[in-house]
Design brief:
270 residues; seven-stranded mixed β-sheet; five-stranded mixed β-sheet; Fructose-1,6-Bisphosphatase, Chain A, domain 1; D-Maltodextrin-Binding Protein, domain 2; 33% helix; binds calcium ion; binds D-MYO-inositol-1-phosphate; 14 strands
């Protein structure tokens, strides 16, 4: 079979993204539970380790070596935003840094690729479970040979839901706590596992029925959004508007429970 040019490009980008996600994941696996240099960024609870930086160097170096003209947006500062480039890589070299720094086994590498600002490729790699979630636009979302599909659960009371809290939670009144309370009181269960990229993949894989979070960044969601979409999930803002690729306001569900979740998020529960 001969691939169409667009499909061939997607396949080539996916192969490179997967290889680089696995290479960075190997660094994380090697350095897990070893002594680390840890610094802080925007707040005392916003950590960055030498492993975040090493993973980013590995990924960005790997892209630059074979695709020097692509734009790169990476969390730890690599790449300038080259608006003339058609292809843009959006990279979270280590999503779940707080977990990684504490030896809590839930973190990953996230790499999303846009072509002409359309999400086209997403790879999220969990190195401890050796799970590689991936999607290309129009080709479905996959975990190895398994095609991913969201659940069909429509009842919030039977749903497992995840969320997270931004690094300004100590100072900001806009802290997600009221919404958290509403869903604790309504869903079957709630999780705060500390990796937005994996939370999105777990919605896609049917391990979660829904997930919401605020004040995320493009690198947290670039891969996960496509993986949810390709698994048949639904993405929106809190007001049920279009999803913002900046990650400022994220509601990701199986679709069936979306409206119930949106309604309950903003409705005070006694
Ligand atoms: C964080 C994680 C966490 C989410 C934070 C993110 P980082 O990313 O995804 O789950 O709640 O808002 O910033 O800092 O570990 O890459
Ligand atoms: Ca992140
Ligand atoms: Ca990160």
């Amino acid at each position: 079979m001969t691939l169409e040019p667009r499909d061939a490009l997607h396949a080539e980008l996916l192969d490179l993204a997967r290889d680089l996600a696995r290479a960075a994941g190997a660094i994380q696996r090697d350095r897990y539970e070893t002594g680390l240099t840890i610094d802080t960024k925007s707040a005392s609870i916003d950590l960055v380790t030498e492993v975040d930086r090493a993973c980013e160097e590995r990924i960005v170096g790997g892209i630059r070596a074979v695709r020097p003209n692509d734009a790169i947006l990476a969390e730890e500062g690599h790449g300038g935003d080259d608006s003339s480039a058609r292809i843009r890589w959006i990279i979270d070299p280590l999503d779940g840094t707080t977990n990684f720094a504490h030896g809590f086994p839930r973190f990953c590498v996230s790499i999303g690729i846009e072509i002409g600002s359309e999400r086209c490729v997403g790879v999220v790699y969990d190195p401890l479970l050796d799970e590689c979630f991936e999607a290309t636009r129009g080709e479905g979302a996959w975990l190895g040979p398994r095609r991913l599909r969201v659940t069909s659960e429509a009842d919030l009371g039977r749903s497992l839901v995840a969320t997270g809290f931004a690094y300004d939670v100590h100072e900001s009144a806009d802290d997600n706590l009221d919404l958290f309370r509403n869903i604790v009181k309504s869903a079957r269960g709630i999780r705060r596992d500390g990796s937005a990229a994996l939370d999105l993949c777990y919605v896609a894989a049917g391990r979660l029925d829904a997930y919401w979070e605020f004040k995320l960044h493009p690198w947290d969601v670039a891969a996960g959004f496509l993986i949810v979409e390709e698994a048949g999930g639904r993405l929106s803002s809190l007001e049920n508007g279009p999803i913002d690729p900046s990650g400022r306001e994220v509601v990701a569900t199986n679709g069936a429970v979306h409206d119930a979740l949106l309604a309950r998020l903003v409705e005070p529960v006694l």
